[in-house]
Specification:
Two copies of one chain form a homodimer. The first copy, chain A, is mostly helical and 195 residues long. The longest helix of chain A is centred in the C-terminal third of the chain and has 24 residues. Chain A starts with 6 loop residues before the first helix and ends with a helix. The mean pLDDT of chain A is 88.
């Protein structure tokens, strides 16, 4: 009798394979065949989950969001009850490629950032999460008692998310080390919130 | 008798077509066929310039660098004799997608940034220009008499280039306006050099 496979487990297995293929070859090389081989399942099983490449790409982005949210759930105390600086840092540090898991996620995010530049549909789907993130950061900037009040909290929040995205690109392209990226984020948090 | 075409002119014509195809469809859609159609020349004429897609991609990046350098040449006085803030601003403002020409260039740069994350060879070719740019900025940060001296000029220079790259991605993906991107750069220059 064939072994029963938990569908959630199979879905995670395919998602992880999808992230690894994206990280190794880039989004344009993502195909049902490559992902199936990487996951060690049949092409049919991958096709069971996605009918088109677009569905597969969307799935890659969604599963990255789910993973980040699951990790954030473990830092909820800091995010909800920490200082504004601690809360913003706890969020943004999850988006920098500082370990293997975040590296894979950053590869997917960077690939989608580039694709958003030529696809209004992907731009729209990226924008939603971005607006939420920026709103949260702007609120914390307003709530903070930094020495010099920030003139434009929304603009500062947008710039901070741009810095993190740029640092992710530079880290993956080995134009800076993970340590430098983390230090650059902390420098900017010092400027906005005080040390 | 067939009209003689200046080879430099033909090369520029193909480069511009290559940039437009990258901006409209992304790097993975760049092909000899698409570029020839966009330039209004034969596929054979495009192939006269590049034997492989890699050669064509490298050409796209090189011509963007040439265009930026040509524009910087017109601001040499500011770059060499302006204040440190003016010099750094004159350089970085050329990398933000604030008009049609810089938008096309930013599309090429963002696409290459994403590809550098999965291709060590492209990462290497991007890194060279980046090291030069950061070296120049770090020197100007050290030379500036900002109110609060910057502790780590190299790190601050690297962060500033990451911010500009992140702002370019966000502007192209319509996550911020060109005006917001320019204002965010100026905010950061205020922090580093004083207003």
């Amino acid at each position: 009798m064939p072994k029963k496979v938990d569908p959630g487990e199979r879905r995670r297995q395919i998602a992880q394979a999808l992230h690894r293929v994206t990280a190794a070859r880039g989004l344009d090389e993502v195909s049902v065949r490559h992902v199936a081989a990487e996951a060690g399942v049949s092409a049919g099983q991958v096709q069971h989950w996605f009918r088109t490449k677009d569905q597969m790409l969307r799935f890659a982005l969604d599963t990255v969001s789910e993973q980040v949210e699951a990790r954030l759930g473990r830092h909820m105390d800091e995010i909800e009850h920490g200082t504004p600086r601690q809360a913003v840092r706890a969020l943004l540090i999850e988006l920098l490629p500082l370990d293997d898991e975040r590296r894979l996620e950053a590869h997917v995010a960077v690939a989608f950032g580039a694709r958003a530049a030529v696809s209004p549909e992907i731009a729209r789907s990226v924008r939603e999460g971005m607006d939420q993130l920026r709103g949260f950061i702007a609120e914390r900037i307003r709530a903070s008692g930094a020495r010099e009040p920030v003139d434009h909290p929304e603009r500062a929040a947008a710039a901070l998310t741009a810095l993190v995205d740029g640092l992710a690109v530079h880290t993956l392209a080995e134009q800076c080390t993970p340590e430098d990226a983390e230090a650059a984020l902390d420098d900017q948090l010092d400027t906005l919130f005080g040390p």
